[in-house]
Automatic annotation (TrEMBL):
Highest taxon, organism lineage: Bacteria
Start and end residues of each PKD domain: 46-97
Descriptive protein name: PKD domain-containing protein
Signal peptide segment: 1-19
UniProt keyword list: Signal
Keyword Signal tagged: yes
């Protein structure tokens, strides 16, 4: 779930407060906003005011000092605070809020139940899926969330290779028969389900370079491109969730990506499965909102 914190510092005079008045100064308009999904919390720390009027930019308003408001739809809104002093001098301050698609997925709730509500962007493993059973995706303005089910044990330390056509363009990236219909700009590789501080092969990010027919990738610095949530093992089945930071991966901020996933044994000797099936088209994840 995306959570955004913005700091606003403004002093915009209304018509009655635009002249210098040392006796009756205009209020100093200061407030912060915190955006979580469609809900916005306004924390008003304006000084020199005794009353407040909010215009939320959607046809509604409030006279509370620090209101909480829920916007009914996605879009751009311009909320404005009108702060008035005891002498009747008014100042105003505005900002821009963008409400985008939100996700019900929470990685900090120690549960995978929120994935039960996700019915779109689901891949069910085919005949060549091997250890893979199912993969789901969701997204918001900041992250792509993923959920997986596979057979095996966490102690097996399977190595994951995630091929991503991050710009959804066949003109850039590796062209391979592994997953067709895409050209892969980004490769994420490592033991995804192990503790990254102790994993023999921690997750790393690579960007393709060179000819499109050449398997040539440069490793990138940093590991903050992904975060894991709940990982559960029971009855020979592993269920896991995580998220990819769209701002940390090249080309990941567009309206669509294509991707495929491969699992390999921890000694690289055996391919355990692919999703989608090897040779099938890469999965298209549309993110228009």
């Amino acid at each position: 779930m995306q959570k955004q914190l913005l700091y606003i510092f403004m002093l915009l005079c209304a018509a009655s407060a635009c002249k210098k008045d040392d006796t009756n100064p205009a209020p100093l308009v200061v407030y912060t906003i915190e955006v979580e999904g469609n809900q916005v919390s306004f924390n008003n720390t304006t000084t020199g005011a005794t009353s407040w009027k909010w215009d939320f930019g959607d046809g509604t308003g409030s006279t509370e000092q620090s209101p909480v408001h829920t916007y009914q739809g996605k879009g751009k809104y311009v909320p404005t605070l009108y702060a008035t002093s005891a002498a009747g001098v008014t100042a105003e301050g505005s900002t821009v809020i963008r409400i985008s698609k939100t996700s019900p997925v929470k990685l900090t709730d120690n549960s995978l139940a929120d994935w039960d509500t996700i019915s779109q962007n689901v891949i069910t493993a085919g005949p060549a899926g091997g250890v893979f059973k199912k993969v789901k995706f969701d997204y918001d303005g900041q992250f792509v969330y993923f959920y997986g089910e596979m057979s095996g044990k966490l102690a097996d330390g399977a190595i994951f290779d995630v091929y991503i056509d991050s710009d959804n363009s066949a003109a850039t990236g590796l062209i391979t028969s592994l997953f067709t219909g895409a050209a892969y700009d980004v490769l994420l590789e490592g033991q995804l389900l192990l503790n990254q501080n102790t994993a023999p092969i921690p997750m790393a990010m690579y960007y393709h370079n060179g000819p499109q027919t050449s398997f040539s990738f440069d490793q990138q610095s940093g590991t903050d491109f992904f975060t894991m949530g709940t990982i559960a093992e029971a009855g020979g089945v592993i269920r896991f969730e995580g998220k990819l930071d769209r701002s940390k991966i090249k080309g990941f901020t567009g309206a669509a990506i294509r991707l495929g996933m491969v699992a390999t044994s921890n000694d690289w000797s055996t391919q355990l499965g692919t999703i989608p099936d090897e040779g099938a088209a890469a999965f298209l994840l549309n993110m228009p909102e």
